[in-house]
Amino acid sequence: MILDSFRIDGKVALVTGGDKGLGQGMAIALAQAGAAVAVTSRSGQAGATLEAIAAAERRGIALAADFSTTEPIDGVIKQTVEQLGRLDILVNNAGIIRRANAIETTPADWQGVLDVNLTAVWALSQAAAQVMLLQGGGKIINIASLLSFQGGIRVPAYTAAKHAVAGLTKALANEWAGRGINVNAIAPGYMATDNTQALRDDPERNRQILERIPAGRWGTPNDMAGAVVFLASPASAYIHGYTLAVDGGWLAR
Ligand code: NAD
Prior knowledge:
Elements: E1 12-15, H1 21-32, E2 36-41, H2 47-55, E3 60-64, H3 73-84, E4 89-92, H4 107-135, E5 138-143, H5 156-176, E6 181-188, H6 197-201, H7 203-212, H8 225-232, E7 243-246
Helix pairs in contact: 1-2, 1-8, 4-5
């Protein structure tokens, strides 16, 4: 039956940056839909996320990883498979933003954003696909952005990286669609997390943003739940290389 095709019982998901924000919301949703979930965080702690996964009666583990280099990636994939038995779903969520005028953006800011938001996404996808291809398939869900489509304000490295994530999503989908892996992305709109705290703290920017969102409110981590479960489940079997906006209608304007 159709609703059964949205279930992911017995599957194993890995969510990077799952200790807070959108990653936490998605990790909990995947557990509620049936998956065991490994979450990474820089500290190796993910207490609130693990509690919610346990409340959904699914297994959860926390792994320490700093994706400013690719060094921890093989270990994260290996530990997930060793501890949870397999790897079916990768959510490339960990990301950073650095706000500065283009003229003042330093080489370190530029490289730092590219390393976490793009290079790690690529390397995690490649490492996860090696497992998924042997298993006969899987799901890779990249967290893109409205700035995969638009230029943004004072975030040149972030915009470049998120445009690249949308392109990488298509490139990997083209290669792996015929081998059982769905590669897709979600483009969140303006979501209330630490990533956007500076915008909400600025009354003028906050007002401008809210006025432009057709839904009239900031998104929440829970707003990601339906989209991530859909893209992680058999219900999305024929969807490849697509970036789905969860944005309260922002891109429709
Ligand atoms: P957040 O700051 O609450 O969470 C970011 C997560 O990434 C945290 O778990 C953090 O530990 C992890 N992370 C950051 N740097 C890392 C590193 N070097 N190594 C490992 N993990 C690292 O922000 P969020 O809003 O939940 O962001 C999650 C994703 O959603 C990001 O990719 C972000 O670009 C994207 N996004 C957010 C919004 C928004 O409005 N909040 C909009 C579009 C896209």
